Amino acid sequence: MAIAITAGKHEPHREHKTFMQRLLDGVERVGNKVPHPVIIFVALILLVIVLSHIVYLTGASVTYESINAETHDVEMKTTAAKSLLSAEGIRFMYSGVAAFMSVGRHPLAGLAASFASNVGVLGGKDGRSAGDATNVVTDYVRINGESRSDSEQFTSAITAAFKDAFTKAAAQVRDDKGETAQAKFDGRADYFPFRLPDDAPAVVHAKHAAESIGLKPTTQFSRGGLDSNWFARHGLPSVTFGAGQHEIHTVKEYVDLPEFADGCRMAVALATIES
Questions:
Q1: What percent of the chain has pLDDT over 70?
Q2: 109 and 78 in one domain?
């Protein structure tokens, strides 16, 4: 048996939408026609720049009340409109944008870092935060760094390079008024480098102590700051040996107990064996 099916027009079911749904659909259609947010952002910036120049050409100014920071008296001040297309305006825009760049928050440090390396902690006066808030462009920044080498002469050369880098950077960084930064550089020696030859009595004795407890000694120069630096500085050549420490001065620091036990045996051997 054959069944014949005749095709005809089918009237689709129309869903009834509420006023709010129609309103949201309209907003969506309009939103899809709006340019990309980046384009809007750039266009608004250009609009502000052009408007600032137009207002500047008209000679507009604003008079307002202001409190004198020294006398605490209320004074009337008048500020004239400034153009962002002028040299001063361009410097002002740069200083504002640089404040929110990763290195630009402290452009002096950024420029100096391009000349030298190993710049450490950035902070404010007395070691506090460099700014009172995260969105504040600081007028002062304190930077702590260090120079390390087994040669005092080369350490001095590294330190001099740091000083030269910050001096050059200070001359290049300008604020919205065209004034340059000021850099004050202080340096001091916390540890004095030294290197003992493999045939030094202290090294020979340390190797002999390690071998006496079944360890295989190896010598290695360390650029860290240790008590032995000061011992050697005062005429007491010293050798530092590990006692199982790993990931030192980090949140992952731990002690390997078997290595720690070897370190204790090493200390006893150093104190009891004869060279």
A1: 76
A2: no
Residue with the bigger pLDDT between 122 and 263: it is 263
Residues 259 and 208 in one domain: yes
Q: Are residues 218 and 248 in the same domain?
A: yes
Classify residue 8: in a domain, yes or no.
Answer: no
How many whole angstroms separate alpha carbon 192 and alpha carbon 186?
17
Mean pLDDT of 90-94: 74
Number of structural domains (the chain) is 3
Residue 258 lies in a domain: yes
Q: What is the tens place of the pLDDT at every residue in 169-203?
A: 888 877 777 888 888 888 888 888 888 888 999 99
Residues sharing a CB contact under 8 Å with residue 9, sequence separation 6 or more, in sequence order: none
Assess if residue 128 is contained within a domain: yes
Supply the range of the domain harboring residue 218: 201-272
pTM of the model: 0.43
Q: What is the pLDDT of residues 4-58, one digit of tens each?
A: 333 344 444 555 678 888 888 888 888 778 788 788 888 888 899 999 889 889 9
Residue 256 lies in a domain: yes
CA distance 162 to 181: 16
- Of the three residues 172, 187, 216, the one that is the final residue of a domain is 172
Strand partners, 115: none
